[in-house]
Amino acid sequence: MKKIGVLTSGGDAPGMNAAIRSVVRKAIYHGIEVYGIKYGYQGLIDGDIEKMELGSVGDIIQRGGTKLYSARCEEFKTEEGQLKGIEQMKKHGIEGLIAIGGDGTFMGAKKITEKGYPCIGVPGTIDNDIPGTDFTIGFDTALNTIIDAIDKIRDTATSHERTFIIEVMGRDAGDLALWAGLADGAESIIIPEFDDDFEDIIDRLKRGHDRGKKHSIIIVAEGVGSAVDLGQKIDEAAGLESRVTVLGHTQRGGSPSAADRVLASRLGAYAVDLLLNGQAGRMVGIQQNKLVDHDIVEILNSKHEIDFDMYRLSKELSI
Ligand code: F6P
């Protein structure tokens, strides 16, 4: 293998730049040419491809977002779109591809691999919703962004003795909400993986109130539904005048944490190793701090599991 491509696709995540840098530098270290494909699979279809050099990835390890831009591409879900992408790979002499993103990205990587062009997936999403890896690139930074926001909200919640309901991202996964809730001592954490009893949320609020605690933080994962609707329900049931904050896309930006930079550097380099060792259709990950790789089809067919022990602990600590 003499030429490989790299792209980022789906929602961006802090640390994607560090992963791109790692792929480019590791490949060049092994004498391989690297081509950056812009705007994910859309750029592959359109031929928005350029050669990357050592200097192309200088000064990006600390930057959020992705230097290669990102997109969600409907056309690449079709056979026609995939064949257009393969044509571009042929035209540029690209023999293998590293795709950084979430499950949509891996679906594209699977399709290209099936058409004879080896792909390796690197998990990059703030949601931490990918099976086969303990952490995805971007999760730690997003979590710290959330913690920073909640700490600030807590100040005003205390001053005004208010209940705040804070909605965090995560798509269908509750990891960001659970970790943030545990890290910030939230009174309730509401995530899609468990059917929370509404009465239990109200009881917790009332119990806290009875022992003189007049402010509360409730964290809701976006996968459960709207925090605004939940806030109204809580106000009616508990006789409160709560405030709702939807953190939104602030969670996707910012300089990656040290943990994300290191994770991205390790995963990107490992993906290059796999391609050079003749592997195809794999996803790299980290489990118990060891680099691992899995069949990408298996990953696409399995479901990320939330850590039940952590969820139970969060309940125990917020009695
Ligand atoms: O997958 C990352 C993510 O930020 C999710 O947490 C969220 O549901 C979604 O992307 C938002 O997507 P968009 O940026 O397209 O609105």
TrEMBL record:
Substrate binds at T125, I126, D127, R162, M169, G170, R171, E222, R243, H249, T250, Q251, R252. SUPFAM superfamilies: Phosphofructokinase. Its cofactor is Mg(2+). It is found in: Cytoplasm. Keywords: Allosteric enzyme, ATP-binding, Cytoplasm, Glycolysis, Kinase, Magnesium, Metal-binding, Nucleotide-binding, Transferase. Pfam families: PFK. GO terms for cellular component: 6-phosphofructokinase complex. The active site is at D127 (proton acceptor). Mg(2+) binds at D103. One of its GO terms (biological process) is fructose 1,6-bisphosphate metabolic process. Pathway: Carbohydrate degradation; glycolysis; D-glyceraldehyde 3-phosphate and glycerone phosphate from D-glucose: step 3/4. The keyword Glycosyltransferase does not apply. ADP binds at R21, S22, V23, V24, R25, R154, G185, A186, E187, R211, K213, K214, H215. ATP binds at G11, R72, C73, G102, D103, G104, T105. Allosterically activated by ADP and other diphosphonucleosides, and allosterically inhibited by phosphoenolpyruvate. The keyword Cytoplasm applies. GO terms for molecular function: 6-phosphofructokinase activity; AMP binding; ATP binding; fructose-6-phosphate binding; identical protein binding; metal ion binding; monosaccharide binding. Belongs to the phosphofructokinase type A (PFKA) family. ATP-dependent PFK group I subfamily. Prokaryotic clade 'B1' sub-subfamily. Homotetramer. This is ATP-dependent 6-phosphofructokinase. It comes from Halobacillus litoralis. The gene is pfkA.
